[in-house]
Amino acid sequence: MSKWKELAFEVLNGHIISKEEALDILNSTDMELLELLHGAYIIRHHYYGNKVKLNMLINTKSGLCPENCGYCSQSSISNAPIEKYRMVDQDTILKGAEQAYQLQAGTYCIVASGRGPSNHEVDQVVSAVKEIKDKYELKICACLGILKPEQAAMLKEAGVDRYNHNLNTSENHHDSIMTSHTYQDRVNTVELIKEAGISPCSGVIVGMKEKKEDVVNVAMSLRVLDADSIPVNFLHAIDGTPLEGTKELNPRYCLKVLALMRYVNPTKEIRISGGREVNLGSLQPLGLYAANSIFVGDYLTTSGQETTADHQMLKDLGFEVDFVKETVQ
């Protein structure tokens, strides 16, 4: 039995991965990759079988953000030629929900740029969520930035199931990527949504000139934070941002990162997110032996893979979309 398979069974028996073991995963050789993924798959299958959750997002407000996140085309310091617009109308959000439903995406993510939402923007999201919940059996995830307690309570009451606020990187590396808010601001937001009774979604962006130790540290921080869903983004460096031209990743390392997230957070939804097409390339299907969730459709300001290709990929793997298609009566 390989050491990765042994480690997987230890994790299933309650073992908590140490930093040394986590670094061993990222430092493993390419010759070990299939054995590493086999171990990750043992854990993934124990909790999720061969089911895959699909997620779709809508960018309801683009650009116009005062923050200085170095990876983001929507930030105040970005010169990327993106479309900029204020909060879209309710009909547009509803049409997105219908598309998500048709694509068998169990979770519809309502995203808006900015440090945090105005009360008017929260009212718009609340109104849309209530109508969506009347029509479809969709889980709703909101991603609106830093919230106030009363705003979190309003979203919960409206039926928002999950709220996304990524840690993005380790505490040590955070200030190298953004300085307009702190790492603790991000942690506090996740804790706030937990207190409001909303399921926390928080993840990472890999490939931002961080060290392997940073990837390990943020994986473990997410374990401590007890995020229910962990999106793993791989940097898609956009021209006009401070990280323009950054290309540190290869598909095999990306797979090791996904395996790390599964070993460290065995029971959680691990979602392959932004940049998967660019960074995993032809090895995308292998990622689902560690992860159990993907985005379908486009991302915030970059294009995703054709949704028909995503569904075909799952069919080829013999995996099943985790979706019950029924409208609310």
Automatic annotation (TrEMBL):
<keyword id="KW-0411">Iron-sulfur</keyword>
<dbReference type="InterPro" id="IPR010722">
    <property type="entry name" value="BATS_dom"/>
</dbReference>
<keyword id="KW-0004">4Fe-4S</keyword>
<dbReference type="GO" id="GO:0009102">
    <property type="term" value="P:biotin biosynthetic process"/>
</dbReference>
<dbReference type="InterPro" id="IPR007197">
    <property type="entry name" value="rSAM"/>
</dbReference>
<dbReference type="Pfam" id="PF06968">
    <property type="entry name" value="BATS"/>
</dbReference>
<keyword id="KW-0093">Biotin biosynthesis</keyword>
<feature type="binding site">
    <location>
        <position position="72"/>
    </location>
    <ligand>
        <name>[4Fe-4S] cluster</name>
    </ligand>
</feature>
<keyword id="KW-0408">Iron</keyword>
<dbReference type="InterPro" id="IPR058240">
    <property type="entry name" value="rSAM_sf"/>
</dbReference>
<dbReference type="InterPro" id="IPR013785">
    <property type="entry name" value="Aldolase_TIM"/>
</dbReference>
<feature type="domain" description="Radical SAM core">
    <location>
        <begin position="50"/>
        <end position="276"/>
    </location>
</feature>
<dbReference type="GO" id="GO:0005506">
    <property type="term" value="F:iron ion binding"/>
</dbReference>
<dbReference type="Pfam" id="PF04055">
    <property type="entry name" value="Radical_SAM"/>
</dbReference>
<dbReference type="InterPro" id="IPR006638">
    <property type="entry name" value="Elp3/MiaA/NifB-like_rSAM"/>
</dbReference>
<feature type="binding site">
    <location>
        <position position="141"/>
    </location>
    <ligand>
        <name>[2Fe-2S] cluster</name>
    </ligand>
</feature>
<comment type="function">
    <text>Catalyzes the conversion of dethiobiotin (DTB) to biotin by the insertion of a sulfur atom into dethiobiotin via a radical-based mechanism.</text>
</comment>
<dbReference type="GO" id="GO:0004076">
    <property type="term" value="F:biotin synthase activity"/>
</dbReference>
<protein>
    <recommendedName>
        <fullName>Biotin synthase</fullName>
        <ecNumber>2.8.1.6</ecNumber>
    </recommendedName>
</protein>
<feature type="binding site">
    <location>
        <position position="271"/>
    </location>
    <ligand>
        <name>[2Fe-2S] cluster</name>
    </ligand>
</feature>
<comment type="pathway">
    <text>Cofactor biosynthesis; biotin biosynthesis; biotin from 7,8-diaminononanoate: step 2/2.</text>
</comment>
<comment type="subunit">
    <text>Homodimer.</text>
</comment>
<comment type="similarity">
    <text>Belongs to the radical SAM superfamily. Biotin synthase family.</text>
</comment>
<feature type="binding site">
    <location>
        <position position="201"/>
    </location>
    <ligand>
        <name>[2Fe-2S] cluster</name>
    </ligand>
</feature>
<feature type="binding site">
    <location>
        <position position="109"/>
    </location>
    <ligand>
        <name>[2Fe-2S] cluster</name>
    </ligand>
</feature>
<feature type="binding site">
    <location>
        <position position="69"/>
    </location>
    <ligand>
        <name>[4Fe-4S] cluster</name>
    </ligand>
</feature>
<dbReference type="InterPro" id="IPR024177">
    <property type="entry name" value="Biotin_synthase"/>
</dbReference>
<keyword id="KW-0808">Transferase</keyword>
<dbReference type="GO" id="GO:0051537">
    <property type="term" value="F:2 iron, 2 sulfur cluster binding"/>
</dbReference>
<keyword id="KW-0949">S-adenosyl-L-methionine</keyword>
<keyword id="KW-0001">2Fe-2S</keyword>
<feature type="binding site">
    <location>
        <position position="65"/>
    </location>
    <ligand>
        <name>[4Fe-4S] cluster</name>
    </ligand>
</feature>
<dbReference type="GO" id="GO:0051539">
    <property type="term" value="F:4 iron, 4 sulfur cluster binding"/>
</dbReference>
<keyword id="KW-0479">Metal-binding</keyword>
<dbReference type="InterPro" id="IPR002684">
    <property type="entry name" value="Biotin_synth/BioAB"/>
</dbReference>
